[in-house]
Amino acid sequence: MEAKVISLRPEYDVTTEQAGKLLALQREILEQVALDVDYREILDALCKSAEQIVVNAVASIMVYDQAGESLSVLAAPSIPPEAVALLNGLVPGERAGSCGTAVYQNEAQYVVNTRTDGRWCDLQAFAHDFSIGACWSSPVKIEKDKAVGSFALSSFEERTPSIFYKQLLETCAHIVGILLIRQEKEQSLFHLAHYDPLTGLINRALFKQKLSSAIEYAVTQNQQLAVLVLDLDGFKDVNDSQGHEVGDKVLQQVAKNIQEDLGEGHVFSRLNSDEFVILAGSLGQPPSVQLLIGKILALFKKKILVEGHEFTLSISIGVSLFSEDGLSASDLMRNADTAMHAAKVAGRGCARFYNEDLTNSVKYKMDLITDMHSALARGDFLLHYQPQYCQRSNKLAGVEALVRWQHPEKGLIPPNDFIPIAEESGFIQELGLWIFTRACQQCKAWWDRGIPEFSLAVNLSVKQLDADNIQKFQEILLAMKFPIHNLELEVTESLIMHQESLVALHKLEALGIRISMDDFGTGHSSLAQLKRLPISKLKIDRSFVKDLSEDENDRVIAKTIIAMGHSLGLKVLAEGVETVEQQEFLAQEGCDLIQGYLLSRPLTVEQFSDLFKAV
Fold first, then answer.
1. Under 8 Å CB-to-CB from 202, ≥6 apart: which residues?
2. Helix, strand, or coil here: 327?
3. SS3 breakdown of the chain: % helix, strand, coil, rounded to 5?
4. Confidence class of residue 243 from pLDDT cuts 50, 70 and 90?
5. Out of 181, 226, 559, 597, which residue is the most buried by the measure of CB atoms under 10 Å away?
């Protein structure tokens, strides 16, 4: 009985049995796609399925190389390796066999006899050596109908393709195109999920995977590993002064310099904005950590050139070792990060190895961060007031509000212990607003009781110099009808030199609030810079006051600061005055105000009230 003929497409007539074979082939491939089988395995399976349908023939898939100039074999499970090697590098053209011509002409090529067909004239040796009698090839297309490769069936006998074989060839080429699109999208998604778009380095997620794999291998091979966390010092200044676009280019250059210096023996990743990480020892070689640290630090002795600007940066490095400092990827990365912060504290531009004491220090810091939020609600924070006296009259001229933390378990915690942590964690905004409000309320209450007005100085953090905080300051002062001319905000010399800070300070000055520069002499201010700053007072840092009696250099510095301040019409205050000799020298040089233990320690609200009663 003759097989029934059916139409899959108007121009193709195939039998029911043949149509069933095509459907079975497509179903088999779709099942493998659904099971998320590797696409190369699927391509091999496609070739073998086609070979089962067309007996005495082998299938092959070729695609353009990365340069887009020649073809390479992507799948050919039944073709000998030596034949594959000869096919690789085939340049599409009119005499490049069935595959090269199909890609060049962008249409299927059906060569019935390779020995007589002009399209195979340049491949006669190949056809003879591997007994290729006929070869049919269909272009693989994935975008704008342009060929990117080919699917071919090479027969070991001269052969004319039937309508069914042509349909099979076209179907297989179409499936290859779909698989290539799928693979391209998967690779793109993988790249987006695992690579940093700015530097091209692997990101934290992929680095952690690679570190975990390296640890598993290191356990079985008794291998050493080292994790180095790198953080750029002062990178924020680059963004603040030149903008984020230049900052991004600096990061790209830094990443390129480090990667080129590392070579291929290490895994290098960007963790976040200006933080990187290196896995050393992943290739089985013991990590030469000290040598690696030396190479990285040496890189930053050279200036970085970006868009005509020169940048001098340093880098802080923290190191953890497997297995001494951790057995998991998370432990090693966390401990290396802890060591990096220790390098920051040590002065930056250096490296520190992890040890258990660093963990204890970090735990103490984290405990304080957790405690600070509840401490404010419980009322554990309190203010003391440091009197400031006029040199000429010896009368009270002002007070500086100083925060203290009376912890229910740890006792009185010094400001130097918790203020830097509050700055780092961002809690300083909440705490600073509380200090500002409470100090203003207390002084207003004193003045409302008839005590003569004096100047109130409140320290200000860089984290408080934003539009929201400035608006809150203004609202608080207006609500309590605080005499703004009595308010003075103290900022450090390093803070006031940032452009963004200057804009905010000018806004505060416009409200009538005076600005005082604290710790003067410890930074890099020049006379030219000072005259443009919105300040009314300089505070001589206590480090220049404590040795005034013995150190000639300190006397010269103090004398110079006083003269500089007066030349600019600024008041000058010396802090940390503890001896009569110090006071006499400052008075002789014309210092306007002093504060320190010689005249008074910081006082509680009750002690300060008693001081007023005595006056």
1. 194, 195, 196, 210, 267, 268, 269, 270
2. coil
3. 50, 25, 30
4. confident
5. 226
Which positions ≥6 away from 428 have C-beta within 8 Å?
Answer: 419, 422, 461, 463, 464
- Of the candidates 177, 120, 102, 98, the one whose C-alpha atom is nearest the C-alpha of residue 144 is 177
Rounded Cα–Cα distance for residues 597 and 586 (Å) = 15
CA dihedral angle for residue 100, residue 105, residue 108, residue 114, rounded to 10 degrees: -50
pLDDT in tens, 80-96: 999 999 999 999 999 99
Cα-only R_g, the chain: 38
Which H, E and C letters describe 278-297, residue by residue? EEECCCCCCCCHHHHHHHHH
Q: Are 282 and 267 in contact (CB under 8 A)?
A: yes
Burial of residue 85, with CB atoms counted within 10 A of its CB: 0-12 exposed, 13-18 middle, 19 or more buried: exposed
pLDDT in tens, 270-292: 988 899 999 987 554 546 788 88
The type of residue at 403 is: V
Tokens (6 digits) for 417: 């212990």
Cα gap 166→12, rounded to integer Å = 9
Sorted by sequence, the CB contacts under 8 Å of residue 519 that are 6+ apart come out as 492, 493, 539, 541
How confident is the model over 420-474, as pLDDT tens digits?
Answer: 888 877 888 899 999 999 999 999 999 999 889 999 999 988 778 888 888 999 9
β-partners of residue 90 are 71
Contacts of 53 by beta carbon, 8 Å cutoff, 6+ apart:
21, 25, 168
Using alpha carbons only, what angle is made at residue 208 by residues 255 and 185, rounded to the nearest 5 degrees? 80
C-alpha distance from residue 544 to each of 570, 582, 586 (Å): 19, 10, 11
The domains found in the chain, sorted by start residue, are: 5-192 (3.30.450.40), 204-354 (3.30.70.270), 368-614 (3.20.20.450)
CA atoms within 13 A on the CB side of 108: 20
Q: How many CA atoms lie within 13 A of 478 on its CB side?
A: 7
Report the candidate in 78, 79, 124, 77 with the shortest Cα–Cα distance to residue 97.
124
CA 25 to CA 99: how far, in whole Å? Answer: 22
Pairing assessment for the beta strands 571-575 and 537-540 based on DSSP bridges: parallel
Helix-helix angle 467-479:499-510, to 10 degrees: 20
> 202 - beta bridge partners?
195, 269
162 within 8 A of 14, measured Cβ to Cβ: no
Write out 165-185 in H/E/C secondary structure.
HHHHHHHHHHHHHHHHHHHHH
At 371 the pLDDT is 86
| DSSP label of 451 | P
Q: Of 489, 467, 476, nearest to 398 (Cα)?
A: 489
> Which amino acid belongs to residue 173?
A
| DSSP state letters, 189-231 | HHHHHHB-TTT--B-HHHHHHHHHHHHHHHHHHT--EEEEEEE
Q: Which residues contact 129 (CB under 8 A, 6 or more apart)?
A: 83
Q: How far apart are CA 11 and CA 222, in angstroms?
A: 66
Please report, as a single letter, which amino acid is at residue 84: V
